[in-house]
Amino acid sequence: MKKRLFIAILLLTMLLPACSGKKTETNADAGSAKGDGAGTGAGTTVTAWAWDPNFNIRALELAEEAYKGEIAVNLEIVENAQSDIVQRLNTALSSGTPKGLPNIVLIEDYRAQSFLKSYPDAFYPLTGHIDADDFANYKIEATSHDGEVYGLPFDTGVTGLYVRVDYLEAAGLTVGDMTNVTWQEYIAIGKQVKEATGKQMLSLNPNDFNFVRMMVQSAGQWYFEEDGSTPNLEHNEALKEIFRVYKAMLDADIVKLNSDWSQFVAAFNSGDVATVPTGNWITPSVKAEASQAGQWRVVSLPRLQTEGGLNVSNLGGSSWYVLNQDGKEAAAAFLADTFGSNVDFYNTLLADVGAIGTYKPGIAGDAFDQSDDFFGGQKIYSDFTSWMADIPAVNYGIHTYAIDDILKVEMQKYLKGEDLDTVMASAQAQAEMQLR
Amino acid sequence: MKRLKSIAAYVFLVIAALISIYPFFWMVVSMTNRSVDVTGGRQLPGTYLMENLNNLFGQVDMVTALGNSTLVAVISTLLTMLLTSLAGYGFHVYRSRRKDIVFNVLLLSMMIPFAAIMIPLYRLFGRISQVAPWIGIDTLAAAFLPTLTTAFFIFFFRQNTGMFPEELIEASRLDGLSETGIFFRIYIPTMKTTYAAAAIIAFMNSWNNFLWPLIVLQSPAKKTVPLLISNLGSSYAPDYGMIMSAITIATLPTVFVFFLMQKHFVAGMTGSVKG
């Protein structure tokens, strides 16, 4: 009987290695081995983590095709959801176990500072590999720490106001009436459109502060002072104005509330809203409803009536980072040769993926001058890139999403009738408590 | 009056059943619709089933993920049941005051959330990788090793061992059966129903496990189904028809295991253990 138990245990221990399968050949030789140039596919293996197969992953694939550097690079792209990348990076870096981490990782700009500050030695500075002046100013601010540039800026989240021409016309208005307006004017137009068509002006999710973040940056402000860690809420005039605008929009009954991303997309795909103020990355989702071709235009974002309020802003966007481990030189060289300097590559990126880069010499090519029939022949990409140049640079700090959570609660209090200064003071106190 | 009461009860139950089954209905229906229709809230079956499935199997490696998940779930379920039932049996049959203290300490470990031990655990596996790469980071074995012996299952088996008649043990000892023999030849066959219930829970836990596999499995070839589904929703323009197809497929094995084990489960409820 004991024999049988022994055999059973023996079998189990043999099973364990079996499920580990054939490993090691993938990342065993990541790094160290200098590329021998001549060999095809025998170069340094560089692993990259990114999300979205149609956007970031595709961009990496195009970069691999475009790469002509001296060090032979074997790019291995691993697709991960963004939240999954954040979780993995945090666990691996805070446990001090870099095994299995990639060479290149995509990080959203809002989260970049928290990684750079929390794990100062984990990332490899790219200052010597790229020329920071070549990139949109606001991107460099987001990807730098202690005077070094750590991220190679990738896509822009330059914003625009997507508008339905047919709804505007039904209200006796033109696209020109929506151009370079303030949010107050926007609300007034919204009422007219609602009266004429019965359609709401925009769709908002009270639990998603994309809208607020977009507006804050349009005034050159953020949730923090310039140091990126002192909360700046109580005396932040831009933020207060946003709260007022938000309430005014709800009071005017021009908002269709949504509770998640799919409802947000549905709101404009089904024709329930007349405008979509958001980042340019929404373009493919707008175009997904082919029956609305020709009805959409993109104009500049409405501005806040505060000091420094502009008709441009940014929402989201991310950048490439190199981890400070074996293979970093090859990874940095790969990025520098493609995203960091290749003008033609950026043309391909736009034509193939619809990605607008933030590399200034790269955004002037032919692809950016194309007109788009879906948008009534408008050259939307050249519009987006011209707005991009004016996006105010702000320090996103290390706690953007934590402040979001605080403000969401305070916003609801304000909408229920509490005094604006009181809720902002409360938000400030909470932020100082939590983020000390 | 009595009839009226039962009608009311039925109406209530029917409504409750409809509410709980609705998400499943919508999931299956959405599997046959385009992404635009799904976000638009279409409730009727469409004609895009094949297209969604083709997209799913064409764009992502669903087959590998299903294989990985099955391998991990089956092995971890079997090992969990063997190890935790041995422990539970031991705690109950060879009871002593000191063992009870050990058991209570073990129960306390149920209070510690996984997130709290995640980072030390990852560190541990980082070390393991250096000496035994075949069970280290980025291996399927690493995905289930930490969850094999949970206090919950040891507790579960210890409690259920109370139903196991001690007389059987004594009789077996008199007949000259060894202690391990009693466990494997008397205890396991008698406690089939307990094992069935544990198997359902263990399989579901393993099949749906997300956080730890997410951290420890890194290469695409090692992905399990929950990790793959998490990826599908990550794009700026997610394809909801495809995601719903993947989720429907991911739900099937759990349903299958439940119905397979249900017979034993029910048999256990009607009392198969004779004193």
TrEMBL record, chain A:
The keyword Kinase does not apply. InterPro entries: Bact_solute-bd_prot1, SBP. Gene3D superfamilies: Periplasmic binding protein-like II (3.40.190.10). Residues 1-20 form the signal peptide. The keyword Signal applies. Keywords: Signal. This is Extracellular solute-binding protein.
From TrEMBL, chain B:
One of its GO terms (biological process) is transmembrane transport. GO terms for cellular component: plasma membrane. It is found in: Cell membrane. PROSITE patterns: ABC_TM1 (PS50928). Pfam families: BPD_transp_1. Gene3D superfamilies: MetI-like. Signal peptide: none annotated. It is a multi-pass membrane protein. Residues 66-261 form the ABC transmembrane type-1 domain. Keywords: Cell membrane, Membrane, Transmembrane, Transmembrane helix, Transport. InterPro entries: MetI-like, MetI-like_sf. It comes from the Bacteria. The chain crosses the membrane at residues 7-29, 71-94, 101-122, 134-157, 195-215, 240-261. Belongs to the binding-protein-dependent transport system permease family. This is Carbohydrate ABC transporter permease. It comes from Anaerotalea alkaliphila.
